[in-house]
Amino acid sequence: MNQQTVFLIIVCTWCQLQGGCAQSSRPHIIVIVADDLGWNDVSFHGSNQIPTPALDTLAYTGVMLSNYYVSPICTPSRSALLTGRHPIHTGLQHDVLVGAAPYGLGLNETIMPQYLKQLGYETHIVGKWHLGFFKKEYTPTFRGFDSHFGYWLGEEGYS
Ligand SMILES: *[C@@H]1O[C@H](CO)[C@@H](O)[C@H](O)[C@H]1NC(C)=O
């Protein structure tokens, strides 16, 4: 089972998300979720082993959320990130989804891209989903994302 650290850079402020800004001045929002990334694996946290100048620039010009904690596995963390609810309230607190598990993040949950769509944003996801795909309604493009380039399960080979 993968250990996971969620690493977030949100390039906006919450008041902007709430519609406080005119449409044309709304910032782009980039959320990066990195598996198996240790706290000190980015140079803006002090690593001198792994230089991360692009991430450092995003961090220094964005908002660093440094006091948030995640489950040590993917599915619970992703469900919490996208819903804003603790995994025990999404029913996905126990484990990662495996294979074609006949469940996923409940369709009764409104998730981040759906809120962003209401504010006029285009929403795209790149990489893994890992929140269920046993019915098409559970997949990213039925959950508020305009597009998804990636895979529905937890891992994929690159060769
Ligand atoms: C969605 O349904 C599940 C299962 O009944 C429940 O645990 C969860 O709290 C519900 N979510 C919302 C947002 O009502």
TrEMBL record:
Q: Name one GO molecular function term.
A: sulfuric ester hydrolase activity
Tell me the leader sequence span: 1-22
Q: What's the cofactor?
A: Ca(2+)
Does the keyword Metal-binding belong to this entry?
yes
Q: Report domain Sulfatase N-terminal positions.
A: 27-158
SUPFAM superfamilies the record matches: Alkaline phosphatase-like
What are the UniProt keywords, alphabetically? Calcium, Glycoprotein, Hydrolase, Metal-binding, Signal
Which is a Pfam family this sequence falls into? Sulfatase
The answer to keyword Cell membrane applying to this record is no
Question: PANTHER family from the xrefs?
Answer: ARYLSULFATASE (PTHR10342), RE14504P (PTHR10342:SF273)
Q: Which family does it belong to?
A: Belongs to the sulfatase family.
Q: What is this protein called?
A: Arylsulfatase B-like
What organism does this protein naturally occur in? Lingula anatina
